[in-house]
Design goal:
The structure is a single chain. The protein is of the alpha/beta class. It contains ten helices and ten strands. It has a five-stranded mixed beta sheet with strand order 3-2-1-4-5, sandwiched between helices. Strands 8-7-6-9-10 form a five-stranded mixed beta sheet, sandwiched between helices. Strand 9, helix 9 and strand 10 form a beta-alpha-beta unit. The two termini are 21 Å apart.
C-alpha cells in the first residue's frame, strides 16, 4: 500500500493531501477565491505569493490530520504542469525539498491526470478503459483513458474552455467570480428553454461538423448580444432565465459529444473531472442521456471536482506503484499535453 504526500498549486488553491493508494488520509485546501474576487479573476503574482505564505502550514496540517509520520510516507508529489508557472514553482520546490530532506522519491504530476484520478477516490474499483470528460476553467477535453499514463485526446475546445465561458457570462450578468457556481445557483430559478443558444459546433472543410470538438466563444457572444438587445429595449434583464438557457446550452453540447464519443469507441463508462463537473445542470443532463444509452457515468464528489491535492496524490501513488519516479531536475510547464504524461517520469 503506497502512501504519498501531494501538493497542488497550479492556480488559486493551495492544497496538500496524503493518499494511501486510492484512499484519502487527509486533504487540506486553502482557497484564494476571496482574494481574487476583487480583481474578477486570478492574478498570477498574487496567487504565487499566497501559495508561498500558506504551504508550510498546510503540509503540517495534512501530516497531523492523517496521524502519520514522515516514516509512513513513501513518496512526495506535486503538480508540475500545466498551470501558472510561478504558482507551480512554489509547490514543486516544496515537494522536492521534502523529498531530499526525508530521502523519498519525487513525482511530478500532470494536473489533468489528477482530474482523471479524482473519480478513483470515490470509485476505487474503477479500471480503464473509459472516457473522461474533463471540464474546467482552463481545459475542456474528451480523453480516452487506456491505462495509467496512456491517454488519447479525442476531442477538445477550439477556444474558451467551458469554465472560462461560465466566468465570462457571469461577468456579463453581474453575478461575480467564480462564475460557475454563481450561474449554477441562478439557473435553478430560471427557464432553460426560454432563449435558444448555439451549441458551438465546429465545421469541417468537407461539410458537416466535428463530432467531438467544441467551441464556446459563440454561445458567450450570443449571450452578449441578447443582453445588449434587452438593454436597448429598456427591459429588465431576466438574469435567471439567461443563466439557465446558457447553462443548458453548455450541458447539451458537452453531453452530445461525450455520448457520441463513448458510443463510437465502444466505451461503457464516462468519468467526469474538473470544476465544471460540479455543475448540477451538466450532471442531470449527462446522467439522463447516459442512462438511455446504457452508459455508466461517474462524477467525483464535489470536494474533488475543483483543484485539490488528493487527486494528485492518487495519480502519483499509481505511478509510484509502477516504479515511475521523476528526476529532481524536472521543471514546471505552463502547457503540456495529457498525451505527454510519461515524459515526467524515468
Amino acid at each position: 500500500m503506497t502512501t504519498v504526500l501531494s501538493i497542488e498549486t497550479s492556480c488559486d488553491e493551495t492544497a496538500v493531501a496524503i493518499v494511501n493508494n486510492r484512499k484519502v488520509c487527509s486533504s487540506i485546501i486553502a482557497s484564494q477565491i476571496p482574494i481574487h474576487q476583487q480583481y474578477g479573476g486570478v492574478v498570477p503574482e498574487v496567487a504565487s505569493r499566497q501559495h508561498l505564505l500558506t504551504i508550510t502550514d498546510l503540509i503540517a496540517q495534512a501530516i497531523d490530520a492523517a496521524a502519520l509520520t514522515w516514516a509512513d510516507i513513501d513518496g512526495i508529489a506535486a503538480t508540475v504542469a500545466p498551470g501558472l508557472v510561478g504558482a507551480l514553482m512554489i509547490g514543486m520546490s516544496a515537494a522536492k525539498t521534502l523529498a531530499i530532506l526525508h530521502d523519498k522519491p519525487f513525482l511530478g504530476v500532470h494536473h489533468l491526470e489528477g482530474h482523471i484520478y479524482a473519480s478513483y477516490l470515490s470509485s476505487p474499483t474503477l479500471e480503464p478503459p473509459f472516457l473522461c470528460l474533463l471540464v474546467s476553467g482552463g481545459h475542456t477535453s474528451l480523453i480516452h483513458v487506456k491505462d495509467c499514463g496512456v491517454y488519447t485526446e479525442l476531442g477538445a475546445t477550439r477556444d474558451d474552455a467551458a469554465g472560462e465561458a461560465f466566468d465570462k457570462v457571469a461577468r456579463l450578468l453581474n453575478l461575480g467570480y467564480p462564475g460557475g457556481p454563481a450561474i449554477d445557483r441562478m439557473a435553478s430559478q430560471g427557464n432553460p428553454h426560454l432563449y435558444p443558444l448555439p451549441e458551438g459546433n465546429i465545421s469541417l472543410p468537407g461539410g458537416g461538423f466535428h463530432p467531438y470538438d467544441s467551441s464556446f466563444s459563440g454561445v458567450k457572444t450570443a449571450v452578449l448580444r441578447l443582453v445588449q438587445k434587452l438593454q436597448a429595449e429598456g427591459k429588465e434583464l431576466p438574469v435567471a432565465d439567461i443563466a439557465a438557457s446558457f447553462q443548458h446550452s453548455i450541458a447539451r453540447s458537452l453531453t452530445k459529444r461525450a455520448i457520441a464519443c463513448a458510443n463510437d469507441y465502444g466505451l461503457k463508462t464516462i468519468v467526469i473531472g474538473g470544476g465544471v463537473a460540479a455543475n448540477r445542470g451538466l450532471r442531470a443532463t449527462l446522467q439522463a442521456a447516459a442512462d438511455k444509452q446504457g452508459i455508466a457515468v461517474l462524477f467525483p464528489p464535489m470536494e474533488y471536482c475543483t483543484d485539490n491535492a488528493a487527486m494528485i496524490g492518487c495519480a502519483a501513488a499509481e505511478h509510484l506503484n509502477r516504479g515511475h519516479v521523476s528526476p529532481l531536475d524536472l521543471g514546471v510547464r505552463s502547457r503540456l499535453s495529457i498525451m505527454e504524461v510519461m515524459s515526467l517520469y524515468v
